[in-house]
Amino acid sequence: MSDNSYIKSLDGVRAIAIVLVMTFHAEITHFGWMGVQLFFVLSGFLITGILWKEKFKPTLLSFKFKKFWVRRTLRIFPLYFGYLIFIGITYLLFHFPVYYKTYIPYLATYTFNYTRSLPAWQGNPLFTHLWSLSIEEQFYLVFPLIMFFCRPRFIKYFMLCIICAAPFIRFFLARYYELKGLPSAVVADAVYWNTFSHLDAFFMGGIIPVLALDTRIKKPQMIFYAAAFVAIAAGIWNFMHSDSGAFYFNDLGYNHGQTANYEYVWHYTILNILFASLLLILVSIHTRQRFLRLRKLLENKWMISIGKVSYGMYIFHWGILVYFWNRFFTSENLLIKTFLFIPYVVLVYLFASLVYKIYEVRFIKMKDNFFKSDNPVKENTSAIKVA
Predict the structure, then answer these.
(1) Does the residue 381 lie in any domain?
(2) Is 110:137 a contact under the CB 8 Å cutoff?
């Protein structure tokens, strides 16, 4: 996959991910947080695919880094820091939120995800959800170093080892937070917010282009069916053995913030495999004709439209919900809340689209114009490669 490649159905996947997250914050589902996990797996697939192809081009190493980081910066920074400036102005004018001053150093340095275990931690719908963007940016910063400095064989084994080790990493992270005396709900969040907890999500998506699974696996749907079966079975078991809530349909056994059944260990592994296998179906050369209906659904013009502005929708949606939408439209009845959810999604989409057209697109055009042609000069990097 090239830096300029575009798979339409993946915009549909983004649309599903953002709508899932919005259902979670709107308190319609307990499982909507899965949308963030889907974003991580999708990012791993796309970014690793870009870096993997770039790795083998006969261009200067410095050019490879510059090309990747400049393009990522132009896509991510303008909206993110523009939003932080907006919140900062709100703080200066109204002194709200009062603890914004405490967290702005973390937000500005993309380290906000490590604040969850701080004493007297305070969350706010304007910026609490930005923890996931911190993890994404840390991945974008570090992984190119591994990709461009290391040999292909090392990269493959490294990614596979991290995927296998991730459940153990999460287990020991939880033990660490428990020894600090944190309550179980905070432990679950602190593990969830930790970058090391999600390396397998990025690598589960990234292993697809690195191992060329889209061509090597002839029946990827079998992996998806098996992963879906395991996910459903595990969800039912967890729902029956935990304080999940009254209804399975808005829980699915994947209630966020639980620790009784070591959910922080296996939740993410099961979902990462499920989402990676879904992506594999969408990009595999062996399933292009078998899953046309699925692709048509994901490539629907509305799904693609939502997917294209999903970044902005993610940043804005929670603040719009709490500080605007719920002031006029709110209900404790789940059915009414679900009905009101549809116009809420439309409002967030329209707002994100407006910001995209008048602000983001300027930087996206700059991104697309950067490094349109590769530098043909090749440098000898053998001295800095590792075995």
Answers:
(1) no
(2) yes
Q: Residue for token digits 């109204």?
A: 94
Any domain includes 250: yes
Q: Which amino acid is at 232?
A: I
Decide if 232 is inside a domain.
yes
Residue numbers of the domain that contains 301: 8-372
pLDDT tens-digit readout, 34-86? 999 999 999 999 999 999 999 999 999 999 999 999 999 999 999 999 999 99
The angle at the Cα of 297, spanning 295 to 302, to the nearest 5 degrees, equals: 120
CA-to-CA distance for 351 and 116, rounded, in angstroms? Answer: 29
pTM of this prediction exceeds 0.85: yes
Q: How many CB atoms neighbour CB 237 within 10 A?
A: 12
With beta carbons less than 8 A apart as the criterion, state whether 299 and 9 touch: yes
Which residues are CB-neighbours of 280 under 8 A, at least 6 positions away? 208, 213, 214, 217, 220, 223, 224
Is residue 379 a part of any domain in this protein? no
Nearest partner of 261 among 241, 240, 236, 235, judged by Cα: 241
Beta-bridge mates of residue 386? 150
